[in-house]
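note to self: dont lose this again. the chain is below, predicted strucutre after it. 483 aa total, dont forget to put it in the shared folder this time
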Amino acid sequence: MIPLSLSHVADAVDGAVHQVPQATGSTAGVVDAEPVVDAEVVVDSRAVVPGSLFAAIVGERVDGHDFIAEAARAGAVAALVSRPVPDAPIPTIEVADVPAALGALARAVLELLRERTPLQVVAVTGSAGKTTTKDLLAQVLAPMGAVIAPVGSFNNEIGLPLTVLRAGEDTRVLVLEMGADAPGNLTYLTSIAPPDVAVVLIVGRAHLGGFGSIEGIAAAKSELVQGLRAEGTAVLNADDPRVAAMAPVSAGACVLTYGTDPTAQVRAEQIGTDPAGHVRLTLVTEASSAVVTSPLVGQHHTTNILAAATAALSLGRPLTQIADSLSRAGALSPHRMQVTRSGGITVVDDSYNANPDSMRAALQALATLGGQDRTVAVLGEMLELGADSETEHEHVGRAAAAAGTDVLVAVGAGAAGIARGARAAGVAQVETPTSVATAQEMLAGILRGGDVVLVKASNGAGLMAVAEMLTQNGEGAGTEVGR
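---
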């Protein structure tokens, strides 16, 4: 973060500063010099480094106020708090709401950076593919100068401000992932960081329970385009009618379209995959074309590759250089279509998250990777689907059958609909372990050499533990294919 005095931070967040009185014998309440925050803002005391500002957030299980002393020992110069902490060993800035204060501070810092530097903000949203596209952009835009992008999926009202606050005066591109599980989320996030380039991927059924309908999801995703800065650029998926329909709400911004549709300004042609599932395609614009051979696994990544290419074109990178960067750019975040050879089997770890659309895409990728080998899908519950949850889970089970899945392991009660759909559609072997631990034991008896195994569920289902168990067994664990 750019260096800011404690009073500057307090002004930005509309907070009250409480100093630490000096020891007995000194003038009470007097300090020698005003502290300066010149390192990252953090919400985890274990991540504090000298110069950090520690934001004490009250969570479901942990109250950050209980860790202020630990943060101070690690070098935090101050803490952002939502209640008085009389015995705090470092100055505190008291605010009504710590997450909201993080947003206010990030907004203020970004405004300062835009006044001082040619910083560009690229924001990505969509029902699937946000994190992979963000990772691609971080690599494709690196030649433009220092790039800041979130680690993993820091895409909410806490993660996004923390990412913005990592930027400094040397930052030239800030890549932000913006997620939404209710209307108004993206309006809030774009109020913190109005994008110069807004990338919309697909409108799918993720978080359906929070929006009520697919149309509600589309309206919420369009908030990103509405939040564009003046003279910004909307990068829209021509293959998704709901995304393409966002062009009129861009308030006069430039619109660039991408897709396989002939009308798209940036198109993918000659799309295919090699035997290892890696994507190959030709990027085509009105002016030129270039071949991309990507290390990403699964043809569904075509959308992510196109979106990253189009955003990079909007920022002035030449197409041939973009294609070269994309041919070397892989997923940086773990548990997202990460392919590993381990103990004689191939594991496709896509356990970070899931929705109906990404489940179907992953099952198709499993079929491609499997070839003549036996394919095993270890699937868990997709969360936040509302009233359509049972139907959507059954559809995924049927999609597994359509993809030719040989063995389906539906983990936990929430995945029962997947098992029903798979059985009804003719999957020969369907197993239903009741827990992650039971699934781990069961897989030890099911899997055999040569199998290709997909592990996928919503994050809350806990299937990361299954993926980690599978990739840590046997020789060669953790070696990502094609990287």
